[in-house]
User: What shape does this take?
Amino acid sequence: MNFSNQLIYWYLNNRRDLPWRNTTNPYYIWLSEIILQQTRVDQGMNYYFKFVENFPTVNDLAAAPEEEVLKLWQGLGYYSRARNLHFSAKYIVNQLNGVFPSNYSEIIKLKGVGDYTASAISSICFNEPMAVVDGNVYRVLARYFGINTPINTSKGIKEFKKLAQQLLNKEDPATNNQAIMEFGARMCKPQNPDCNSCPLNSSCSALAKNNIKDLPVKEGKLKVRNRYFNYLVIETDENTTKIVKRKKGIWLNLYEFPLIETLKPINENELIEHETFSNLFGLNNVSVKLFNNKIKPHKLSHQHIYAKFWIIKIANSLNYKHSWEDISKYPVPILINNFLNEYKSDYFF
DNA sequence: AACCCGTGGTA
DNA sequence: TTACCAAGGGT
Assistant: This one.
């Protein structure tokens, strides 16, 4: 048995029964693939159920306001996935008469769909012989064939795609693609792979050379940027506050409290003297109190955000019309959601 | 090519 | 605790 057929044989005896494995409806496969980008199955599962339930068809998704889509996506991260998903749903309904594209070259035109996702959908739903190359495939191929080309270079991307395509079982690309990914996720894991019970252990290069921990090779290291956020949590006499929509960068189109970002941590006096602060409150009589004395950084892939939540009490409620109950309807970053849960738990539970 | 975009699990 | 990184894609 060749490499791919051994993987398929293993897969047919070891596959998990996942909800998106019981359908070839391209809309559902698309949903699952977008949700699972850079996301573990355990983390994405409930989101898949939520999306299928709230948007049973691509028409339902297209008809929803973006805020509703982002709210359902809240907590999953990489929110451009949700924005692109929604954009592409509208494209399918308005430009393609609601018919999901049925081949690789049309599928990859969808926003948020790259080579991996187009290969996955076209093979699983339409039996098109396009090999998927995700993190699992890089790892399995690099180890088994002893390839040390860095996987995050254009050379590596081409090399692994070509090899995966050569290895692909063209009779059953759907099963082959899912087999190699499942194999990478559960047998040839990043740490502590189960080499003892691996069906390929007698011919694996990395096992023979004892360099499993060095493969796959990744180039460069991402640098983490520190940012200092000062959120202005307004409390008016009428029990209202204010949130605003983010217009750029991280958490685009999600909501947060009015923000003053600084290059270094600042204290209360520096906050009050800040230009943005005086522009907002002018000569109004406000009281300021820091909610979180202990600042725990909110860690993203390449940013550490040190957020202070300043409670601003003000009599005038003219410009601050959000009730605290309303805020739970808006999509917010986890950082904001965690604060809300601590600060106004009465309203949310 | 280099950088940006989240959150949570694991060792 | 830090570091890695997960069914990647856009610019």
About this structure: Chain A has two domains: 3-214, 225-348. Residues 32-41, 43-44, 78, 80-81, 84, 111-117, 120, 132, 134-137, 177-178, 181-182, 184-185, 190-191, 301 of chain A lie near DNA strand C (CB under 10 Å from a C1'). The CA atoms of residues 34 and 211 of chain A lie 33 Å apart. The beta strands of chain A are 225-236, 240-241, 244-245, 255-256, 259-262, 286-290, 298-299, 303-314, 322-323.
